[in-house]
Every structure is written in C-alpha cells, then in structure tokens.
Design brief:
55% of the residues lie in helices and 0% in strands. It is mainly alpha-helical and 289 residues long. About 3% of the residues have low confidence.
C-alpha cells in the first residue's frame, strides 16, 4: 500500500479575542450601626459620639452600674413627688434653703460690706428647685465671691493709682500752696454737696463717664478750689443745708437787713467792714444776675 503524499494545509485562523474590560467596582458607603434605628434618633448627638454598638453598650453598662451603685433612680417629667424627693436626697439636695447653710459662709474681706446675702438666699431657692446639691451650690457661691473680690480689688487699685496721679499733678502745679488749695477745694465741695443735699464724701464718690470720681478729678478739684477761695465773696456756705447761690429774693432780703443795720454806717463798729464787704458782694450778685 502506497502512501499518498500529504500536502499539509494551514489551520483556519482563530477569531480575534476581544479584551475583557472589567466594570469599575464602586465601593458602597460604609454602613453605620445607627442605620438600623429610627431616623429621628440617628443624628442625635448623644448617639453619634459612639463609633459602634459596642461603644454604646459599654457606656450604658458603666452608667447603669454607677447609678445603681449610688442607689439613684433618675427622674423625669413623669416622676412623682416621692421619686423627686428620693432623688434629691440621694444627690445631696437639701429639703429647704436652710440646708445650704448660707449663714456659715464668709465672703472675702473686701466684699464684707457689700456682700448681698439676701440675693444669695433668693438664688438658693431656685437652686434647690433645680436639684443643686449643697456642695455644688456652696462651691458656685464661693466661686462667684472670689471672682467679685478679684474684680473689685483690681478696680480699687486702679482708682488709687488715678488718685495718686491726680495728687501728684496738683502738687507739682501748686507747689507750696498745695495744702491751702486742697482745703479750699474741700470747702467748695462742701458747698456744692450741700446744694444737692449730699455730704462732701457722697459727692466725691459720684462716678464720672470716664470711670473716675468727682473727688479724684483734677479739673473738678481746681474748680472746687476756686469756689472755696471765693466762697465768702460769692455768698455761699459749706455744710448740709448751705447753697452755692442765692435767689434774687434772698439777696434783696439780706441787703435790706444789712442796710437797716446801724453798724453799716458807723466806721468804728466792729462789724462795719464785714457788713460793707457783704453788702458789696450782694450788690455784685444782683448786678451780675
């Protein structure tokens, strides 16, 4: 048997293979443990601070243990008066404001004369209603007092510095005449204070818009000094009940009294010079008015 010559034939070309393009994988947004609770609670700040359920559970267990350890049952708007009383007792809230023992508190010495004990008592009643314990309330009262004492101390220090600066400036300006000028200023302030029904100390303590006081103001001190120096001539007197100026009727009345006094016309009379000076001053007030 003869083998026929075999002519090799080429295999048909395979069809081209299309490249496989994988679809992009989009990562799903990470789920939150809060997705499974009511929508109205999901964004509550009390829950969003917990990363997962385990953290929430741990916090709850710790809080529950603390509450039961102290034997405290939380109260809400539905709690009975008995439940509220038990809660307040457990938290150290006194039954009455006397339980805060406010009378035992001694404020800083700088506040001794201005401490408002009655005001603190009024606040204590509200604190008791809100369930503030004795230790908490007394701690807040002391913190407030210490803050007020600090602020008042700084204010007093500032006032004293201003006063020293004013005194130094006036001493430099008046020189040896400083004591006399200050005495005149006090006399002028006495008269001004009397005109508005105050004492000199009360007038000196009146505050001005710039934060200084009348008694510590350099310009006003000079004005009062001039008033004091001219007091007799202007016809005003110091002391409560005195006045800076006289009404026209008062001037006329006093002039009539002086003019009817025989000593006015007797040069040798002891009071002659004083009457003449007073008459001239009154006449000057009449002409300037």
């Amino acid at each position: 048997m003869s083998e026929a010559a075999v002519t090799p034939t080429e295999a048909p070309a395979a069809p081209p293979v299309e490249p496989v393009v994988e679809a992009p994988v989009t990562e799903a947004a990470p789920s939150s443990w809060r997705d499974g609770i009511d929508e109205g609670l999901r964004e509550n700040p009390s829950l969003t601070k917990f990363e997962d359920v385990n953290a929430l559970g741990k916090s709850y267990v710790e809080l529950s243990g603390l509450i039961h350890k102290k034997g405290i049952i939380p109260i809400d708007e539905n709690s009975t008066d008995e439940q509220r009383a038990e809660y307040h007792k457990a938290m150290g809230v006194p039954e009455t404001t006397e339980g805060y023992e406010l009378g035992a508190y001694q404020p800083p010495e700088i506040l001794a004369e201005i401490w408002d004990a009655n005001g603190v008592s009024e606040v204590a009643e509200k604190a008791r209603e809100l369930g503030v314990s004795k230790d908490q309330f007394n701690g807040m009262v002391d913190a407030l007092a210490q803050s007020q004492a600090k602020n008042l101390g700084e204010h007093i220090q500032g006032v004293e510095q201003k006063r020293a600066a004013v005194e130094s400036g006036l001493k430099e300006k008046y020189g040896a005449a400083f004591p006399e000028k200050i005495a005149q200023a006090k006399a002028g302030m006495d008269a001004a204070a009397a005109a508005v029904g105050l004492t000199r100390e009360e007038l000196a303590g009146q505050s001005l818009p710039d934060g200084s006081f009348i008694g510590d103001n350099a310009a006003l001190t000079e004005i009062f000094s001039m008033l004091g120096a001219q007091g007799d001539e202007l016809g005003f007197h110091g002391g409560r009940g005195g006045r800076i100026a006289m009404t026209p009727a008062e001037v006329e009345t006093e002039l009539a009294e002086i003019n009817s006094n025989p000593a006015l016309y007797e040069r040798g009379a002891p009071e002659h010079k004083a009457l003449v000076a007073r008459r001239d001053a009154l006449n000057q007030m009449t002409s300037s008015g």
